[in-house]
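HUMAN:
Could you generate one sequence with tokenized structure?
ASSISTANT:
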Amino acid sequence: MLVYNKYLPVPKQFNDEFWTVEKVEHIRYLSLTGKPYKIFNEDMNSLRVLDKVRFKLDKATSISLTPKANLELEFSGIYMKSPLYLGDMSYGALSGNPNIAIATAADLTETLAGTGEGGLHPEVAKHKRIFVQWASARFGVDIRVLTAGMGVVIKIGQGAKPGIGGHLPGNKVTEPISVTRRIPIGIDAISPAPHHDIYSIEDLGQRIEALKEATGKPVFVKVAATNYIPYIVSGIARMGADGVIIDGHGAGTGATPVVIRDNVGIPIELAVASADKILRREGLRDKFTIIAAGRVSSATDAAKLIALGADVVSVGTGALIAMGCVMVHKCHVGSCPTGLTAKIDGTRVVDVEFGVKMLVNFINGFSMELANILDNLGLNSIKELRGKRELLYGHGLSKDTLEILGIEGTEDEVNPKLGELWNRRVIAYMHELMNKGNPVITSMGSTAPPDVEKPARIIDWLRSDGAQVTRPSIDPYREDVDTSFYLKGGEIYLSLPIIFDITEASLEYKEAFAWSALALSSAVFDYETIDKYAEVFISSDGKGIARWSKSDIYENSYLLIPADENVIDEVIGMGVQGFIVDEDSGNSDLELVVSALDTKLKEVGVRNHYDILAKSGRLRHSADAFKLVLLGADSVIMPYFILEKAIGEGNKGNLKEKAFSLIAGMKKEIALLAGAAGVYSVQSTLTGNRELLRSINLSYPIRKALRIKPAGSL
């Protein structure tokens, strides 16, 4: 048995990471010494909104080993020595001993620890400073579990997977987990997307009251930071909850689909600011506690979030790093190199004493840094910092973002295209999707743009919604989500809104995509039709299911137009079936032209007479297609070389099988995205439904042109 009782070297990071080596080393210093290391951390190159928010200081900062500020607070009858909540990490996602170490450290430091869903480890149950979780699957939950700690958390959603349920891969469901969760060994434990007894804010109120009555404990509600977070939080407060845990985009997790992790939800800083604002407006802020979670990497992050309106901050990934995590994103596999998230099979364990020691030091060092920040700001207590937005200043943020945060700052309209279109992470993800034909599962927080990686196109600044409380999400693991689209007035049926452009492909690739399209009820776009696959060809020779042309006007055919906003007025009223908006032959961004064309057709009352197909060689994956549909496209024409990128240097054999798996995987990912947004029928609900999108600090003129609300807006 391998026993981990020391730190391993941090591997070289080849891809962009939020949890950089510098952040890991900072946390390790705190954990090894229990002393403050650095405050007012700044990352000048980061696009994360919270990193662009800084404290106003008129003097040089200093760090003391004996800071004076008081960090104590009390809520719902619970005393805390420091405003730190140690995540919500389940027994199963973690390997047992880390769960014990977290609960022990919370007791020793008089903070709080969340237990996550999935029942309660018997050793954890001995500790008192825990919040137990009541999640959608109710794994291992009974009255003894619910009354074990100081409070109960109704988990509606989490930041790494808004709108879908929890996921513990079957390879990690060993006998101890089977017993605790009361589920079969070796079978995936997938929680339902919604609570099937909570479909409205009133239903939630009944559950809150019932749990309070049954346990006599304070009840919190955990939600992901999504489009309607201000209204959701105000509803939770009205229903009598003691507080809310808001989990922002980028929060860590043991297992989640990449497509959900990277494309759904909004950052915690925008969610906290907007939630605090509406609670104050509605007179609901007193005696209601906001716990802010998701990418709290330092005491500086914590101080900013408290100044924006949080009472307490949650540190999950930071706690794991304190116990030795080296950020390899393999929690879901069960072979964690530090034993923290390894499957429980007796081969690897974390030494509890080591874990407790590192965590206690980390909490003490983190708290001393937070107290030093207060001292430097001239504040005597943590209570004085809450909601004190006037201490903050935004550097280079959009007009919208500054308004939502409620702070002063310099406005800046950032170039939306800064990054690499096909980076290592995207290629690796598409390679796995192609090989498995199922949504790719990963772990830990998102590294996607704009917060970590640099955005490569406008669409990278947009996030879709995750349904929770105000409407139910749809569970694609248990329910069919209709991803089909009809074109040409119902003549063409597509099982998903994706068509592949094979105009520049070799014959081998053309055959592979045509065969796969036929098998999966998709379509291909080309100049000439391959006769045996005619029923899937949208071609310029007129021999397939639809015809397209660059210049000639044919009834019941598609006109290919350049992505140029100046041509929109010229094409309105033409006697064609629809328009193929081609970014490769235009001088405008596809997102802007598709949205403008959809809007114009609606304004003149003829939108239902035309199809809009969005075409570009700069599209990468199903999330791009999904967002373009939300902007107004009926379907998206993607480049065949997505498959070439996915194959990379790998085996180029069995192209038909690879193309089939790629399309099948994309179809399932679109079902996941739609289900997370609470959408059952994709075409009837999604096309042009901009309300399901929010922008993250996107340039104001571009956001207005797209007619999308900013994240965190009321």
Observations:
- The first helix runs from residue 21 to 33.
- The longest strand covers residues 219-224.
- The two ends are 54 Å apart (CA to CA).
